[in-house]
Amino acid sequence: xxxxxxxxxxxxxxxxxxxxxxxxxxxxxxxxxxxxxxxxxxxxxxxxxxxxxxxxxxxxxxxxxxxxxxxxxxxxxxxxxxxxxxxxxxxxxxxxxxxxxxxxxxxxxxxxxxxxxxxxxxxxxxxxxxxxxxxxx
Length: 137
What we know:
This protein is an all-alpha fold. It is built from seven helices and no strands.
């Protein structure tokens, strides 16, 4: 019984493949330009997808470790390091003061000391210098 089913199934599959092949040949004869253009487009799309996957594959991010030697050599305190991290996150003086539960004047003092220790004149310059030294992410 199963043998008969498999034989009929194989015959039907072979017939379907044969008919599809004949239909493809007819299609290529009647519309050769469109068929080749579609094949070329599919090939380009596949190549583009493959290249994108290869180029955009990034290694997993490494865990960030603070450069303790740079922190110690600069003389940055733990509180100043907190202020620097909050500065790098884009917080204003008032937001930093609220988060650390200190006055805005205290935050200004910490920032002034950080500028002096990092040799910076602006916030962005201080953040860039700290990132270069590996003090913050």
